[in-house]
Amino acid sequence: MPRLFTLIAIVTLGLIAACAVEPYKDRYPDGNYPPPPGQTYPPPPPGQSYPPGRPIADDGQACGGIAGVQCGNPNSYCKNDYNACGAADQMGYCAPRPDMCTREYRPVCGCDGQTYGNACTAASAGVSVVHDGECGSSGRY
User: Fold this and answer.
1) pLDDT (tens digit, 0 to 9) for every residue of the chain, 141 residues total?
2) Distance CA 95, CA 113 (A)
3) What pLDDT sits at residue 107?
4) Is 116 inside any structural domain?
5) What SS3 state is found at 38?
6) Inter-CA distances, 67 with 33, 57, 71, Å
7) In 1-141, where do the E strands start and end?
8) Is residue 39 part of a domain?
9) What's the confidence (pLDDT) of residue 21?
10) Where are the alpha helices (DSSP H) in 37-129?
11) N or C: which terminal CB in the chain sees fewer CB atoms within 10 Å?
């Protein structure tokens, strides 16, 4: 009798583990999971996606979100609205990185938790702005 209970427990745990993994197989059948929050994959070579199968967007098109859509232009970045930073799978749009910025000091806090001299220098680094002013001392917004 104790062997029967042990067998039932093992089968039950196996089924629970299989159910916990299965939803991810449906969402990402090719195994291309989105990057961790606040991070992006490096720009892909022209005409290719990275990792393979990842959708690519042109300038002005939607990017980010749960699908992890990347900008195809290596001189662009996925720009999010102020206070968004891709939270709750919000989409941004592909925007070109500025070539030059003024030296005007109007600090902003980037989605990476770093303080930038102004919104242009954050965009030049490929980082969206979460709010005006310096980031908190913890390195977060």
Assistant:
1) 666 556 565 655 555 544 444 444 455 555 555 655 666 656 655 655 555 566 788 899 999 888 888 898 889 999 998 878 877 778 999 999 999 999 999 999 999 999 999 999 999 999 999 999 999 865 556
2) 20
3) 96
4) yes
5) coil
6) 8, 12, 12
7) 56-57, 62-64, 70-71, 76-79, 91-96, 108-110, 115-116, 129-132
8) no
9) 45
10) 119-124
11) N
Considering the domain boundaries, does residue 63 fall inside one?
Answer: yes
Tell me how many domains the chain contains: 1
What is the side-by-side order of every strand in the sheet holding 129-132?
Answer: 115-116, 108-110, 129-132
Q: Report the pLDDT value the prediction gives residue 20, as an integer from 0 to 100.
A: 46
Q: Which amino acid is at 55?
A: P
Q: Which residues pair with 62 in a beta bridge?
A: 93
- Tokens representing 55 are 């959708």
Residue 30 falls within a domain, yes or no? no
* Rounded Cα–Cα distance for residues 111 and 39 (Å): 10
Token output for 80: 């999010």
Per-residue exposure over 57-72, b if at least 16 CB sit within 10 Å of its own CB, e if not:
beeeeebbbebbbbbb
- Strand, coil or helix: 115: strand
Distance CA 32, CA 131 (A): 31
